[in-house]
Structure formats: structure tokens, C-alpha cells
Target: 1-acyl-sn-glycerol-3-phosphate acyltransferase
Amino acid sequence: MAASDVVLSGLGIVIAFTMSLNILGLIYRPLQFYGKFLLCFLSMCTCASYGFLASILLSLIGKKGLSQWTAGRAFSTLTCPLIGLKIDIKNEEILRKTRPAIIIANHQSELDVLLLGRIFPKYCSVTAKSSLKYVPFLGWFMMISGTVFIDRQNRGKAIKALDGAINAMKKNNQCVFIFPEGTRSYFTEPDMLKFKRGAFHLAIQSGFPIIPVVISNYSHVFNFRKRILQAGTIDIQVLDPVTTEGISNEDLDDLVETTRIKMLKVLKEISPKAVKEPTGDVEADDTTLLSASGTANGSDLVGTIDDDDVLEPRITRDTDASEISAALSESATEETDLTPDVSKVIELDTRN
Model:
């Protein structure tokens, strides 16, 4: 039997199994959760493979900056109909016409990876921990598409990698996407964690504007503890760019707080009323759906530098690019840590 026949047969079995879970899920809801989970995984692998090939072609014609955008759009376009998800974005034109810029958004769960695929504008990049480059499909795509890999164990390499990213932003007129909360919140009410300062340090030193993106609370659509992954609508609103011209590091705290307050106000306005009742504290070790590491602990983030104690006293208007890179690493996104660990999910389910 040819290798292609084996691959197609295996794929057919997986698809049939996935569809069976979704059908049986009409009787027992957790099975539908796992069925949709597998659909997301298959879609991710498919789109990562597509992104790998697209990145090669785009690089050959000098359009490498479109690689992550085209793969992200493919992921959201394919996956959303499969799981019954609708994403409505207000003021999306702001993302298209403002470059370069620092784009920030609230970070709720692993589902944000899918939302990123819909939000992501052209010529925008993300950062990820260096170990992800070895993940099949996803890692291959990330390596060739221009992802900035951060070695958390080697500060020098991390700073050098982000130094190159900052220079690329200026040279190629591109954006960078950062989750300022630094980790997933898993809130079931419209709220956000305290913002870290890396993204705002970068914006002040570069003079680039900050574009806040607010994602409504979607715990009614996805909730790991309750094994919910169901059809629904998620509203997203892009806010007006926040200028950093004329702002110094003395204004940093005000910039961070006023931006967070503005985003939180919109978050409460656009979130469904039904999800505004808190359900208690979040336990990071029991909330993993699409994480390669199997944890949502803050120590699993890309950045490990203490933004307040180490970086802030040293950053001035004359700060060089390496120091700005160090500040950015504190708020580098961890949303690309998305490879599912099916055995971990099933283990958690049987344990509860």
C-alpha cells in the first residue's frame, strides 16, 4: 500500500471518529466537547501545513510578511464553521490602516489562537517560546513564517531575537501582537488581569501607537471545566489607536492604567450579560485545552524577566534596542503554545 493511501486511510478514520463524537455529543455533551476539540486540532494541522507551503511561495516573491496572516485567516475560515463559531469585529479598518503599531488584546483562553486568526492584520508577527519550533506542522510553519522564537533559558538570545524583531518592525512597516496580561485569565466574567509593561515600554521607546483590541467574554462558548465548546458569537471591538508621541517613561504607569481602564469599560459593554457572574478563582493546572505543555501556569510564559524590578529603572529615551527587547519579552505572547495534548485532557476529565 502506498504511503499516500495509508495517510488518507488514517485521516478518514480520524474524521469518522471525530464526527461520531459530535453526533453522540447530542446525547452526552462532553463527547461533543472532545469531538469539536479534535476538529480544531485537525484544522490546525491542516492550516499549519498550508501556511508552511504558503510561506515558501510568499518568501520567493518578497511577501513573507503575509505568511502568518494568510495561515491565520485559513485557520479561522475553516474552523469557525466546523464548531459553529461566529466572530464579529467592529472597527476592523483601524488594524488595516495603522502600521507599524503595537496591537494588544485581552487574553482569556486557548481559544484566543483561533480568534487571532481572524483578528490578525497583514504584516503582523507574534513571538513564541523556542521549544515550539520542534512541534510537527505548527513548528515548521512558525519557523519559516518569521515567528520570533524566544529562548527562555538564555536571556542573551532572547534579547537578540527581539532586537531583530524591533528592527524588522521599522524596516518592514509591520506590527507586533502582544497580550499585555502575560497569561490566560480564564475569567467567566468581563474582567482582565493586571497589565504587564513590556508592550508599553516598547511603544514609548519606538514611538509606535498602541491599538487596543477588546474580546468579549466568551465563557458561554468555551469553558473547560464544564466541558463546553459550543456554537455562539464572540464580539470583538478595535479601539482607536493610543498615541505615544510626546510620552516619556515617567508617564508609563498612567499609560498602562488608562489603557486598561478603557479596554475594561468596553469589555463590560460588549460581553453577554449572562456571563457577568463570577464563579470563583481560576486554577491554572486544570484549565488546559490546547497547550503543548499541559499547563497554564505563569511560569510557562515566553518571558521570564521581572519587568518592574529589573527593566523599568534602566529604560530612558536613549535606551538601546536590546533593552527594549528585554522589556518586550515580559509581555511576549504565549498564545502560540497551542498543540493539543489529548491524553492530558482526557486524564483531567476522568479525574474531576
The two ends are 43 Å apart (CA to CA). Residues 91 and 264 are 17 Å apart (CA to CA).
